[in-house]
Amino acid sequence: MITLLHLSDIHMGSGFVHGRLNPETGLNTRLEDFIAALTRCIDRALAEPVDLVLFGGDAFPDATPPPLVQQALASQFCRLSAAGIPTVLLVGNHDQHAQGLGGASLSIYRTLGVPDVLVGDRLETHPIDTRSGPVQVVTLPWLTRSTLLTRPETEGLSMAQVNDLLLDRLRVALEGEIRRLNPDIPAILLAHAMIDTATYGAERFLSAGRGFTIPMAMLARPCFDYVALGHVHRYQVLCEQPLMIYPGSIERVDFSEEAEAKGYLLVQVSRGQTQAEFCPLPVRPFKTIQVDLTEADDPQAGLENAIAQADLAEAVVRCLYTLRPDQVDQIDQAALETALAEAHSYTLQPELKAPTNRSRLPELGTDSTLDPLTALGAYLANRPDLSDIAEGMIAAATALMADETDDLPLDDADLALDDVDSLALEETAQQLRLL
Ligand SMILES: [Mn+2]
User: Does residue 151 surpass a pLDDT of 60?
Assistant: First the structure.
């Protein structure tokens, strides 16, 4: 039996906007949070100790992390190397460099020849000797069309056709790896992929309209004793036989992960009896406070009340509130900041709700042809805010149309040009031009 630790989607260096500067270390607190979460994973791997560590991809937000962030990740994985625990680092979509192969941020480990660290940046099988015996790990990094297809092959094809072609190629290539597996040795598939049955948030299917997805059945093959996934940030078991799991991200990358537990998996791999345990990590809470104040008599009190009811301690907080334009002056920003001081960090995100939505000027539909004066009349009929100058505008427009500019009633009190909102006039002109 092989014991392994499976973690994924570290995204080290992301979400700085949710942190603040730690004056003692000079580091963003969210970087410290992510380092702490990864440290806990590695601590556990060493404490067990496990026979193998599998990382499912997306180490950083992109392929060119700053040296400080690179080092933060490397110093943790090097602890495994020093302890002689084999580790497979899979390349996710965030780790790939846009410019071709070999540019992945994780390739440096292979270049440096870090002992016991393998980089999975292509579809291949890695035979690994662990303390508890040999194991075979098939790595399937994030696929892009350039991985398995050449440009002439994809020319003129739709996205759906390209995806079908990519799946055909993957099926053949994976079959090749599977046929070469030694059936007497445990086999694991480590894949960074969007599986078609994965869910996210409130059970929404992620795959809808989200590009390349792989049917679960293509990877859930009986030859594998465990299928270790990466890419989706929400922990989920996709298949029991063989066991196929997304461990999810190890820290919250953004507010979409507010309600999700974060952690890693401890997996005991044996033929037909693989078992996995989800191990939660004590990560920083995210908290959304959302309140509609448009009906409130005292919006400030309503907002402060909503804040007081939330558990803010050490949390990353966002406060979303909706106001009418005339309520803006009733909000005391400084008082809100005091009320939110207990949070680790917070953002205030007011949204103004206009009292009525402006109508779409049905009279000015594209199918009707109106003369400019009729169009202006229809426009003004929908702009009660311009009613005091409407008559003057029509008079001026009539004069313009008749080319009687000399007779423009510039002195007419009805058309007090100095008072006219010049933006409104400009807008009128634009609307007319659009006709
Ligand atoms: Mn990913």
Answer: yes
Question: Are the C-beta atoms of 227 and 188 separated by less than 8 Å?
Answer: yes
CA of 244 to the centre of ligand 1 (A): 17
Helices and strands per DSSP (H, E), number in the chain: 12, 17
Q: Tell me, in angstroms, the distance from the centre of ligand 1 to residue 63's CA.
A: 12
193 Cα to the center of ligand 1, angstroms? 7
| Centroid of ligand 1 to alpha carbon of 105 (angstroms) | 14
pLDDT band for 417, please (50, 70, 90 cuts).
very low
CA of 111 to the centre of ligand 1 (A): 23
| Residue-level length of the chain | 435
Average pLDDT over residues 185-211: 74
Q: Would you say 412 and 429 are in contact if contact means Cβ atoms under 8 Å apart?
A: no
pLDDT of residue 62: 85
Domains, the chain, ordered by start? 2-280 (3.60.21.10), 296-352 (no CATH), 362-434 (no CATH)
Confidence of residue 295 (pLDDT cuts 50, 70, 90): very high
* Distance from residue 165's CA to the centre of ligand 1 (Å): 21
Query: Which two three-digit tokens encode residue 169?
Result: 């190629």
**What distance in Å separates the CA atoms of residue 429 and residue 435, rounded to the nearest whole number?**
10
Rounded to the nearest whole angstrom, what is the distance from the C-alpha of residue 58 to the centroid of ligand 1?
5
